[in-house]
Amino acid sequence: MTTLPQSDIAIRVLRAGPLALLQDRGRFGVRHLGVTQGGPADLYSWAWANRLAGNPWGSASLEITFGGLQLVAERDLDIAIAGADLGATLEGHPVPLWQRVRWSEGQKLTFGTPVSGLRAYLSVRGGFAAPPAMGSVACVAREQLGGFDGHGRKLADDDRLSTFKPGITAAPGITQAPPHARPDFREPPQLDLLPGAQIAEFTGRSLFDAFNTWWRVDDRADRMGVRLAGPKLQCRIRSLISEGINLGGVQVPPDGQPIVLLNDRQTIGGYPRLGALSPLSVSRLAQCLPGQEVRLVARSGESVLREYRAFLASFAS
C-alpha angle 176/316/195, rounded to 5°? Predict the structure, then answer.
């Protein structure tokens, strides 16, 4: 029988803010049960936060959307914050992002409002501890799975958060991300799209518009999906049998406005799809604020897979 590392209460929530969720890599092998994967909306920033904190791949981190969170340490902790700049301060002083930082007992860590990007990831050396549900602690509120209580509840005021104690033999590892690894979330992103089986059913004009338009991120966006606003896309398919939906799938409903499906998406859907964004482009889209512009770029599966494998390999060491 596997023995889990020891854990104890390390953080108290003073103010929960609009949305803070526990996320590990996600929940896999359960979609046939109608259960979605969950996990970090921005896999890239989540992976860096864990690496910088000294945690292995898959460790649970806190995904903080829009900010408004205030925490106090109940013991000394080593942490890393990656992803969006949400104006994080430690006892009123700005917290350096994309590097390991000491958070001393009694100090208040406060997240303000977005400066750039939408979601920040807080990782604690040792990783957050919570009871797994279906093999993961990833929080999916709609399905009432995961999170610190195992039932998909977002953080609330006065919650106490537990962390695993890091192994005494753990190597220090990299403690600061190089400049080239830190995305500029203020820049309009170009998102890699792998064309799908139904792309030929869209009209020629629609295909031209799809890849030659700067789309605007609609304010109707959450962890299920992001709606893009722009020219109306038209598809010759009138009805479609529901089929499985992958991360990043770009559905086009009857109103012609694409919806990019994210981690908490439904497991099946019946709208035609242009294709799917690459996992790293999904991560980049998850950091876009409403009103930000994005562009779709058609890519081959081989080149996208090569880049994604290189990304995964860089975090396996």
Answer: 100
pLDDT tens track for 164-207? 987 654 456 799 999 999 999 999 999 999 999 899 999 999 99
64 within domain boundaries: yes
- Tell me which residue of 298, 222, 228 sits closest to 264, measured CA to CA: 222
Tell me the DSSP string of 3-38: PPPPEEEEEEEEE--SEEEEE-S---S-GGGT----
Q: Nearest to residue 70, comparing CAs of 117, 17, 146?
A: 17
Burial 91-112 (b: 16+ CB within 10 A, else e): eeeebebbbbbebeeeebbbbb
Q: Is the pLDDT of residue 315 over 60?
A: yes
**Full-model pTM:** 0.95
| 293-298 and 190-195 beta bridge pairing | parallel
At 196, list the tokens. 């799908």
What's the CA gap between 225 and 258, in Å, rounded?
10
For the cut 70, the answer to whether the pLDDT of residue 4 exceeds it is no
> Does 160 share its domain with 222?
no
Work out the end-to-end distance of the chain between its first and last CA atoms, rounded to an integer number of angstroms. 26
Looking at 140, 156, 181, which one is the last position of a domain?
Answer: 181
Q: Which residue has the tokens 């992976």?
A: 47
> Cβ(198)–Cβ(235) under 8 Å?
yes
